[in-house]
Give the backbone structure.
Amino acid sequence: MPAITLENITDAVINHGDKGKTNPRLHEIYSSLIKHLHAFQREVNLTTEELDIGRQFLFKLATPNQDFPMGEIHLMTDCLGISEVSILLEDNKNHDHGTTEMNVEGPLFIAGLPERANGVLIGEVGANDKPLFVNHSFKDKHGQPLANAIVDVWQPNGEGFYFVQRDYLPEWNFYARFHTDANGNLSYATVVPGDYPVPTSGPTGSMLEQLGRHGYRAAHIHYIVRAQGHDDFTTMMYFNHSPYVDSDTIFSVRDFRVDIVKHDNADEMKARGVDKPFYTLDYTFVIP
Ligand SMILES: [Fe+2]
């Protein structure tokens, strides 16, 4: 190896070792990452002091905290748009088929969601919450209904809190696993989810504040659909009424946005068993 210089160090790092022969994909990713990281250092003339601040920041990201038992690496990749870029790259291959957009899972999916019957209310309706009745159909790209598909649904409550974020919320509040019926349909009762800020007590929040960015997610409901003959399909359904729909902090709002319809007729309220105005939403998923 020749004497290392600023000009040759990137090639030296990329070509050190022969792992590219045994794992070409890893070598491709590694080589590109090193190329771009070194280029970034050269572009901003990164000092050793600034590099050390970066190291400490990465250490904090990986350290568990009150809001994130696994640390904040996932949250940071979301807030930097990194998660969404990979989704956009992967989703590109489905665009021609008019399928529903896929999207990021987010950090608050929890395995073991409770099985719930088609049609039930999936969480506690608070005094200020807006009841929402949801009707979904699930079809493939040929229009065939997806019967007996497993559909996981999770969302925050009307105040914007997932149940794991507040001790006073019941376990599995607004988390549910459903099965579509023989016609590929599913309905459930819930509340209009609240907008919520990502937890900002850790290093990600500190970054957002120093960049003058707000940390709000536009109101949404998460879904994972598992249908026979299809890859697992993960997405988020956004609401047009959210004030953050055009400035979501993880840059994941694209075209999958829905409108809810308000109902304040007394007879309709009585028929639905609610004592205040309620909302409805119909949406058909087309699963790739
Ligand atoms: Fe979420």
Q: What stands out?
A: The pocket of fe (ii) ion is lined by residues 106, 108, 217, 220, 222 (CB under 6 Å). The chain has a mean pLDDT of 93. The radius of gyration is 23 Å.
